[in-house]
Amino acid sequence: MGKVAVSSSAGDLPERRFSGALGDDYELWSLARPFLGEVHDVVVRAVRSFTQALDRPLRALDIGMGMGDGAITGLLLADAQLSVTGVDNEPKMIKKARDRLTADLSSGRLKIVIDDALHFLANQPNHAYHIIASGYVLHNLTADYRARLYGEIWRVLAPSGLFVNADKYAQTGEAHREALRWQLNWFFDVFVPRQRCDLLREWVLHYVEDEAADRVMPEADVITLLKDLGFADVRIAYRRYMDAVLIAHKP
Questions:
Q1: Above 50 in pLDDT, residue 1?
Q2: DSSP sequence for 17-73
Q3: Does an H or E element contain 184, and which?
Q4: Which of 48, 63, 94, 213 can pair with 134 through a Cys bridge, CB separation 3.0 to 4.6 Å?
Q5: Separation CA 29–CA 118 (nearest Å)
Q6: DSSP string for residues in 121-134
Q7: Average model confidence (pLDDT) for the chain?
Q8: What is the β-pairing status of strands 243-249 and 157-167?
Q9: Contact, 220 vs 211, CB < 8 A?
């Protein structure tokens, strides 16, 4: 096993919503996400189209990398043009990522940072990354924090850079309520037969908390915010119920 390249930043880390049971058994979450493969395919196509157009080594950042291999970091590492930095504030997730991505860490293509995303970005130079990506992370943040994070993403992203986020972007009215009901039903269908009512409870409560006024992430509000920052071609490239992929480019 090669030397694992992990850096740590000082300071208090903010809210950690996956420090308990959800972080221990996060892998089971994917069983309740029947469209996750399609979501990942959309992200891969967006990244591949971007890197092929430039055809040179590029730097990518994954905000909230989680376990790494089965999520956005793994998708980014699949593109040989990219060197990848993954940042996460949850030690449980970072440990799993280190254990699973040893080869990429040893090769130098991957750097893992344990830090708060906003703190990390605020300490990066302008135009540090060509791609900034994330997966099912930003909806966990409060709206005020998220708005500041988008501002830092804009600053740190290089000109002509790509921002791509697979996440829970809330629709309006009945469409959002239907999507939420559909997802909660899936949790019951997945966890009850496996006798994991403990996880069922945790995930249902988690999704209820996501509906709070200071946390819910409306699709239309995010698109407006990103356009106001200066992003171009901001669009939802994919949606099935609560699963969506947002893509934006920095001119």
A1: no
A2: TTSSHHHHTGGGGGGG-TTHHHHHHHHHHHHHHHHHHH-S-EEEEEES-TTSTTSHH
A3: helix 173-191
A4: 63
A5: 25
A6: HHTSPTT-EEEEEE
A7: 88
A8: antiparallel
A9: no
For the segment 71-81, what is each residue's pLDDT rounded down to a tens digit? 899 999 999 99
**CB-CB neighbours of 177 under 10 Å:** 12
Distance CA 245, CA 44 (A): 11
Write the single-letter amino acid at 82: L
Q: What is the pLDDT of residues 188-215, one digit of tens each?
A: 999 999 999 988 998 899 899 999 999 9
Closest among 173, 148, 168, 125 to 229, alpha carbons compared: 148
pLDDT at 221 over 60: yes
Q: Are 81 and 49 in contact (CB under 8 A)?
A: no
CA 5 to each of CA 8, 69, 94, 104, 110: distance values in angstroms, whole numbers, following the listed order:
10, 16, 12, 10, 8
Is 131:155 a contact under the CB 8 Å cutoff?
Answer: no
Average pLDDT, integer, range 79-85:
96
Q: Mind listing the domains of the chain with CATH numbers? A: 6-18+35-172+215-249 (3.40.50.150)
CA–CA distance, 4 with 113 (Å, rounded to integer) = 11
Task: State pTM to two decimals.
Answer: 0.89
Report the C-alpha gap between 219 and 181 in whole angstroms: 18
Collect all residues with Cβ–Cβ distance below 8 Å to 229 and sequence separation of at least 6: 150, 151, 154
Report d(CA 152, CA 10) in Å as an integer: 19
